[in-house]
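Take a look at the protein record below with the fold in mind.
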Amino acid sequence: MINEHPDNNRSPQPYEGLLVVTIEQAVAAPLCSCHFAEGGARVIKIERSGGDFARKYDSVVKGESSYFVWANHGKESLQLDIKDPNDASLLHNILARADVFIQNLAPGAIGRAGFDTDELRARYPRLITCDISGYGESGDYRDMKAYDFLVQCESGLVAINGSPKGHGRIGVSICDIGAGMNAIIGIQRALFQRERSGLGSGVKVSLFDTAADWMTVPLMHTVYGGKAPQRVGLHHPSIAPYGGYETRDGEILAISIQNEREWLRFCSEVLQQPEVATDERFNQAEARVRNRAELDTYIEAVFSARTRQELEQTLKSADIAYGAVNSVETFAQHPQLRYRSVTLPDGAEAELVAPPIRTSDDAGTNSYRPVPAFGQHSHIIREEFAEQPSFRRATS
C-alpha cells in the first residue's frame, strides 16, 4: 500500500516511483528519509520490537513525540526482526525492488546482521545505499557513541558558542540535522549518477564530518591566524557592530553592519553621531572588532534610551540590517512562519512547520501525509513482499 497524498488533484511529485527502505532511529536518518517521503517517494521504515526510540523522546504533540512527528510523517511502519531468518528474507525481497536503502545503526551492526551495504549493492546493482554514523566507519572514534550534543562538544562547536562566561550548546540537534541534509545531497547525487550509469552507489555521512565542515572558518583562524574565535555571546567574533543590544522596553534587537557604507549610515542616522564613524578606534572593520567594548558603549547608550518600535523604524529608514531576539513563544506567532497540518497515529491533527523548500508544484498542498503508528503497515507489506520478485523493476 502506498500512502496517497491528501491532494488528489496534485501534480506528479519528484520522487514518485522511488521506493526508499530505512532501518533508522533518532533524527539524522529519519529526517533524511522524511525528505523523500515529502517528495512523493514510498518510504518503508523498519522498526524493531519497541519501535524507534525517538517515539518516546517526549509526548508533547497530543501524546506523540515532537521529534518523531517532525521526522517521520508520510512513511509506512514495518515491524521486523532482521536477525530472524524469515524476516531477513522478507527484507531482501523488499530490497530487491528498492531504489534507496538508508541506515544509521551503530558502525558494523548492519553488516553483522547480514546486510552489509557493499554486499547489498553487489547483490542489487541499482540499489543506492546510505550509511549515517557518528564518526565514520574507521579511525579511533569509530565505535564512540555519537549523540548530537557529544559531537557538538568534540567538534569544537560548543567552544565557539555561548558567552565569555561559559560554553553554549546549540539549542537544536544541529549535527543530526546537518548529517541528514548531507545524506539527502549524497543520495540525490547518487540518483543522478544512476541515471547515467544504470548502477547504484554508496553514500556515507557522519555527524562529526558534518560538524567539522561547519567549523572550517574557526579552524582556519586557529591554524593560520594563531587564535581561535572567542565566545562573544550575541556578538560576532570577527565583525562589529554585529550583535544584540537591549532597548528601553527590555527587548533585544540584533544589528549587522557588513560594510563601510552601512557603518557611515549607522553612525549618522541611528547613533546620530557621525564623528564616531571616523574615530580612529572605529574607522576600519578590524579596528571596530579590537575596540568592540568601547564601541558598544555608544550603541548601548542609544538603544537603552529608545523602545524597540522606535529603533526598528529608525533602523529600517537607515537601511540597516536588524532582527529581534525573539522568544520561542514570540516566534510561534511570527508573521512569516508557515504551518502545515499532519494527522497523528490516533487521528488527531497537529501543526508542523511547513517545508523550507517551496516549489511551483506545491500550490494547494496544505497537509503532510500521516505519521505512522508503530508497525501500522506490517501486515500489508508482509503480504506484498512475501515472494521474491522474479525481475528487477525499472525506476523512473
Notes: The chain has 16 helices and 13 strands.
